[in-house]
Amino acid sequence: MPQKEKLLLHACCAPCTTVPYQRLSEQFHVDVFYYNPNIYPEKEYVLRTQEIMRLAKRWDFHIELGLYETDVWSKRIQGFEDEPERGARCERCIRMRLKKTAQFAKEHGYRIFTSTLSLSPLKSIRMIHRVGEEIENQTELTFLKADFKKKDGFKQSVEISKIERLYRQDYCGCVYSQRK
Prior knowledge:
By secondary structure, the protein is of the alpha/beta class.
């Protein structure tokens, strides 16, 4: 049996990793890259990191932790703080995280990368795919355009999270996404 091609999956949190990991694992050898300098406050970042590490151990997948570069993230979104969810602030944030994922992928021999972000009903799939394609063109890597919301993906992630007793946050991650 031929060996599966390696894919690097950017993960935003444990609950959003569940369905993408399961689906992608049918076709690829999936490793996870957790890079989320947008998460606020730091105790929330620590909690989410612990949860994804717990899931990685329980489901036996390899995970790499990126740096928690909140200062770099803050500079990246400076001037866009008042943008709405799915707006220019989110695009800058997603671009930063996908670029870092692609950089890690290139440095470690992956040819394909994607993100769990498309699972969220709060994110624009068109924007994620556009940003992924831009990075693909800059890096000679392949960005796998996936929409994990399809086929009840988000609903399934909620169900799996209950079974696995995963902590589910009630906001995307950054301080601005906490605004109601």
